[in-house]
Model the fold of this input.
Amino acid sequence: MAIVIDSSAKRLTLHTANTSYQMMVGEYGYLFHLYYGDSIGDGDCSYLLYKQERSLCSSPFCAGEDRAFTLDTAPQEYSAGGAGDTRLPCIIAEFPNGGRALDLHYFSHELLAEKPALKGLPSLQQGEKTCQTLEITLKDSDSEVYVILQYTVFEEDDCIARSCRVENRTGAPLRLEAALSACLEREAEEDLDLISFWGRHTMERNVERRRVSHGKIVVDSARGTSSAQQSPFVILCDHHATEDAGRCWGLNFVYSGNFAASAERSQLGSVRVTMGINPETFSWKLEDGESFQAPEVILSYSGCGLSRLSSNYHRILRENMCRGAFKDCRRPVLINNWEATYFDFNTDKLVRIAETASKLGVELLVMDDGWFGKRDSDWSGLGDWTVNEKKLPGGMQALCSKINALGMKLGVWFEPEMVSEDSDLFRQHPEWVLRIEGRGYSRNRYQLVLDMSRQDVREHLYQQISKVLSSANIEYVKWDMNRPLSEVWSQLLPADRQGEVSHRYTLGVYELMDRLTTDFPHILFEGCSSGGNRYDAGLLYYMPQIWCSDNTDAIERLEIQYGTSFGFPMSALGAHVSACPNHQTGRTTPLFTRGVVAMAGTFGYELDLNTLTEEEKEQVKEQIAAYKKHYDTINKGEYYRLTDPTRNRELCAWEFVSRDKKKALLFAVGTHVRANVAMPVIRMKGLDAGKQYRLTCQADHPLTKKDVGAKDGVYSGAVLMNAGIRTPMLKGDWPAFCVELEEVENA
Ligand code: DGJ
Done:
């Protein structure tokens, strides 16, 4: 049983294949968190609760003269602000008299034999899996405010989907100043780190690991998107946890707007981590009879290091978050014209790019920014989604026929949420943008943000976009979003509801995404936001792949993709081979290396292949053939980080193993080639120790001595995992190699 309820002991336990999560209704009816970690079977952790009188810690009113009982030090399942627990609150509610205190007690619980959907929000889907859900209702001691905690257990995946709903039955409005989704409590003596993923445009998701010391750590976004600056995914882990050892708890937020993940070590040393919508940009007026649904957090635990934790997330996001026709099928190898032409293109140029690409095996041409309105630079045109016939004579249909005639699909770029100041749409509807009446507004790339909380705006966008999508055989859409939100204020909402706009914006974006992806199910949608500025589990519900970064430099990508891999599957990670010298860094890397790096994701090209030599074109052909051959291993297999590129400055290596362990791929890039050094040994992971594998090594650099290292031949999984593979003797700038392993039966 995934969920076990011991009514007499008032203990509620959630079990996954390898983990247990336990809570109990304790003294005075409070819901306490007891345990989350490796499986404890039918174990009872209630003995861990204790009470002791502590100075400067208050006791709740219901505890009367029991001075030893305080919420200020107790491990709470969902902490409420204002009534004695002064640590991180999950919920802050203001009553009409201005009072801000909630005192939440267990009220009831219910078991559901399925996973309910969260209205208007992305969330894990049960699919073919069997799921149980526990809903625990908490009630405020002095009012009719109810908080329903929801837990769905994905047993085989070692994941728990957690969220909460607040119901106001007080007869008067209630103002929510915070309504977070999840809380995690840890014991006092533990030496824990928080791993988070910070970044900036063109350098997203850098790994940052710090000790959780006294006070608070806040990782958040107030930019309107989940952001390049901080990712809505954090890991709490043992200070000594590594890829293969130690306890790790992950919190992956299924939300694409402002978020906050906070960790606090309290006065007694216990640690609390919370995650949810960022309270800094949130305030929600909940009328009597209304409820507020907080987004979902996917919790996962691994008792054997970070690698397993990532694998849990890769699997569940791939299988239960991504939906639609493209969830499981092989996605096309694409070529995008952005770095090839920027705004300077027309039908002929695109067709020339596509002609060569199709001959080499590319399957989809993506026409990026610049095909519509008055859009010859980023100064104008956004919002006017009509084809610029000067660039594309005969419109979308004419271009599409030409591309289809080459045996290729056509994809189109949109930036639905934006409008240029110089656009017909802005001239007609200046009131449709986010701005505060009577104030100037901030500019970014000379574009403004449409008020996606407005139904009329969403309807207009739906009509415009669906018209284009229906006008020709368009089979892919890149959904871009290129600026942060500012002056967040909506003309349609009263003053006391302006704090809702950020969240309503995100809900509006979700609604439009849902409508378009539902009505055009044959179209593959790819998310993008100046690269990876909205890279989160929520977006994957609508779009199974996301452009990872505008930085296409293969060497920089090593770190970006490494960081991204902690919380997100490689099948979602958009990665392209681009031109050299690279447009972002000016660095020149071998084509082979660029291919190796881009193959760790949804593979494509971002250059004009006509500029390559015949020899290079042959190489492109080989890359595409190799990617197609290994598609399942890369996109559905297990992924292992073999080195940490931020520490190992000489070699970056990673590995894919097919689900049946019959095939594996090791990819590595030499990031600093040195003279007269020993060639390192890399130990493979995740193979079947008892299987025999045929090893073939491919390296491209003419000076690299392949036979020094991984000699082609047959090796056992046990040897490859324990003794390892010696790397070839790498030479030159940014060399790479790839080792392919295939099971040899009856060897
Ligand atoms: C930002 C995206 O990340 C790029 O790939 C490209 O589509 C540009 N926007 C176009 O404006």
